[in-house]
Amino acid sequence: MAEKVERRLAAIVSADVAGYTRLMRADEEGTLNRFRAHRSELIEPKIAEYRGRIVKLMGDGLLVEFASVVDAVRCAAEIQRAMAERNAGVPADTQIVLRIGINLGDVIVEGEDIHGDGVNVAARMQEIAKPGEISVSGVVYDSVRDKLAPDFEDLGPQQVKNISEPVRAYRVVLDPEAAGRRKAPRETLRVATAVSAGGSARELAILSGLQRKGSWRVPKNLRVLAVMGGIDLDFREAVFGPGVSEVNITSVMGGVAVIVPPHLQVECSGVGILGNFEGMNQGNAERDPSAPLLRITGTAVMGALEISTRPLGETMKSDRGAHIGQIGQR
């Protein structure tokens, strides 16, 4: 009787170094040392942070498996952004630049190795990715487009070896800072028209800490509750839908710190019940009347709620979530 084949669904990330042969011919030892440094200092720790598993290391790349496709895309995006920063100031002809492809699909498991169509599609996505970029399959796009902030560019159908039907591919549009191009502070606010008008979400921290920062998608209705815990909400690089986004915050014997960019339209109101509510001055002349409106209501019960305006680059006065126990950026 034939042995049963083990299969599982996985998010597969395939990455390689662009122009690796040229780099090795020019400086074999230097190229190896630079790539190993990137792997040990950035790539491998970032994969571990997002709960990925390195399936295999090749001379010029690696194959990684994730249980979550959202984690896979987030991890890849953070690696590419960090690689761009690490390459800043390095001569172009010696830079280690990655191409990354991501697919979500069924894989065949043999010991620690995986293979099959799911891996083949990820490898094809990597092949069509330009240096410093990420390409994903259509199934990845469908799975993450409403969960992550990055935009996507449709690359059309792509032929994949041993698969009869073409596979649609998308390019992940990384923010300009990933390529070393700094935005002016007023341009850090991005409006995502794809956000569902009826979208809602909840953030909860009980005896723990939670942070929302960097690039994240703001739902139309967000409810936030901290019970003997801490939450930091940083809206400076967040992606807003058009119109009004409502945020209702309750802090019970906990702390919530909110930071908004100077140009965002904000309405805030709240009350402290044996606690402290600190609103913000809403008369800032920098506010852009065409920007989306963020409406915040809050209640602090034997706790603290602080809403402040700070330009990108300034930190919060009190990283409450980090002090009480950070769950991590989600």
Summarize this, please?
The protein is α/β, with parallel strands linked by helices and 330 residues long.
Shape: elongated
Provide the β-strand percentage band.
35-45%
Query: By CATH's scheme, which homologous superfamily of the largest domain applies?
Result: Nucleotide cyclase, GGDEF domain
Query: Averaging pLDDT over every residue, what do you get?
Result: 81
CATH overall fold name of the largest domain:
Alpha-Beta Plaits
CATH architecture of the largest domain, by name, is 2-Layer Sandwich
Q: State the CATH class of the largest domain.
A: Alpha Beta
Can you give the helix content as a percent range? Answer: 10-25%
Radius of gyration: 22 Å
DSSP, total strands: 21
Query: Pairing-aware structural class of the strands and helices?
Result: alpha/beta
- Tally the helices: 6
Could you list the spans in which at least 5 consecutive residues all have pLDDT below 50? 176-198, 317-330
Distance between the termini: 46 Å
Secondary-structure element pattern, one letter each: EHHEEHEEHEHEEEEEEEEEEEEEEHE
